[in-house]
Amino acid sequence: MTFRVDEHATEFAEIDRFDGGVGWIAHPEEEMQRASHALERDGEVWVFDPVDTDGLDEFLAEFGDVTGVVVTLDRHTRDAADIANRHDVPVYLPAFFEGVSKEVDAPVVRFGDELADTGFKTRTIVNNRFWQEVAIYDPDRRTLLVSESLGTADYFLARGERLGVHPMRRAIPPRDALGDLVPDRVLVGHGAGVMSDAPTALETALSGSRKRAPLLYAKTGRKLLPI
């Protein structure tokens, strides 16, 4: 699987543009399709799980001033500290994240059920020693951001899915955390977001996660076979 962790991106692909937000993939050739996002609220820009790239500051300036950089998955510190320090803002971490602040070389602010005073609500997806993750939901624009438990990169998707549950979470999809939401769009940390008929895509992903798991694992296995 292509995963370029050490090479700074010199260009990026824009994804997920809508009124109030945008996303980008800093290394479009990666199979992992690491996606980053910015959401705007009252001229303030909140950056989520970012991978840095040349031209990013100019790209974000279109939406306003960067106010904070948010990490929503314990493994997604990515380039959060570099971007936060460049804009002289904190890195925001969920209150229950343990050990992550040690990996962030920048000022850290904790948040709970709401991200600062943005109106962006949080939903705890996973909280255990191996995996800590929150989803972000903007009820005003009905925008859902899930950085890892849901994705659209090929290795997330079984046949017939536009949005899939992470292969390691197929047996326990986040139905309790997300099942009551009816979003206009679903943004993800791996791949482009679902920008049309998002409620159907979300319901399909959550309700059929276990049933379609064998299809996904079989697809992954076929890719690993020697040619």
UniProtKB/TrEMBL annotation:
Protein name, per record: Uncharacterized protein
Gene3D superfamilies xref list: Ribonuclease Z/Hydroxyacylglutathione hydrolase-like (3.60.15.10)
Domain of life: Archaea
Organism for this UniProt entry: Natronococcus pandeyae
